[in-house]
Amino acid sequence: MHTKEYGPYAPKAEKISYYKPNYKLVKCRVNGVPVEKMVDKRASLTDFLRGDFGLTSVKKGCEVGECGACSVLIDGESVDSCLSLAIWAEGKDIWTTEGLKASDGSISLVQQAFIDHAAVQCGFCTPGFIIRATEVVHRKIRYTRDELRVELAGNMCRCTGYENILRAVEDAIEIEIAKDGENK
Ligand code: FES
Ligand code: FES
């Protein structure tokens, strides 16, 4: 026989909180701007940048450190943000592709080289490649084609546009080296 003493009919239990959010204040610089934000200690840097700052150039590809689509520069080094916790950003200088533009709106020489060499197809991998290439180009080293392949090996392009990407990065390196010569 039906009674009203169980399930939804039972007296209401005391409130139990199963989820105890564990947040931490993170202070860092994002694209040159000082920011501070309370973040879930378990959140990835990808979610931090995309969710909290709307920086959607940071793509979610594999989310296991294989494709490089989520690459960002942390203190000048390209890093897979999907493998980084947001709380590790504390005190760091983080750059995404959105931040590579100059204040007058002009794009970086790496971005221009990608345009000049049509090194973009669907574009999903492009921001990650631009970030990685920015670090590589900044070194001003003339790599052989094979060495450059190794340098870019952490970034994958599913449209297989590798040849044009390699040409774009080689070109950007040459322009960077030439700029150095002009400044001497
Ligand atoms: S999404 Fe981070 S490496 Fe693929
Ligand atoms: S351009 Fe489509 S994944 Fe690289």
UniProtKB/TrEMBL annotation:
Coiled coil: none annotated. Residues 14-100 form the 2Fe-2S ferredoxin-type domain. Pfam families: Fer2 (PF00111), Fer2_2 (PF01799). Gene3D superfamilies: 3.10.20.30, [2Fe-2S]-binding domain. InterPro entries: 2Fe-2S-bd, 2Fe-2S-bd_dom_sf, 2Fe-2S_ferredoxin-like_sf, 2Fe-2S_ferredoxin-type, 2Fe2S_fd_BS, Beta-grasp_dom_sf, Diverse_Oxidoreductases, XdhC_XDHase. It comes from the Bacteria. CDD domains: fer2. This is Putative carbon monoxide dehydrogenase, small subunit. GO terms for biological process: purine nucleobase metabolic process. Keywords: 2Fe-2S, Iron, Iron-sulfur, Metal-binding, Oxidoreductase. GO terms for molecular function: 2 iron, 2 sulfur cluster binding; metal ion binding; xanthine dehydrogenase activity.
